[in-house]
Design brief:
The protein contains four helices and no strands. It has helices at about 5-15, 20-25, 30-55, 60-70. The two termini are about 20 Å apart.
Length: about 80
């Protein structure tokens, strides 16, 4: 997939991390970094679940979980 210059700039700016934050993360152990990533994943999952339960009160728990998996896997599931 080729990105045009505007798309490349948008991607670069969205992925740029503050130098101080980079140093903080580098100082963490692999286990600490994994714990941070898991916490972020768990938080994202809870937010999506809350939105779906509000938007679709008629959906079953299984339907909610399938949609969460679809969204968090970018449609791969």
């Amino acid at each position: 997939m080729r990105l045009n210059p505007e798309q490349r700039r948008a991607l670069a700016s969205s992925e740029t991390m503050d130098r101080e934050m980079v140093e903080i993360i580098r100082a963490k152990s692999p286990a600490e970094r994994l714990a941070i990533a898991f916490g972020m994943w768990r938080s994202a999952r809870r937010m999506i679940e809350s939105i779906l339960r509000t938007q679709h009160p008629e959906w079953t728990g299984d339907a909610i979980n399938r949609e969460i998996a679809r969204r968090m896997s970018h449609g791969a599931v």
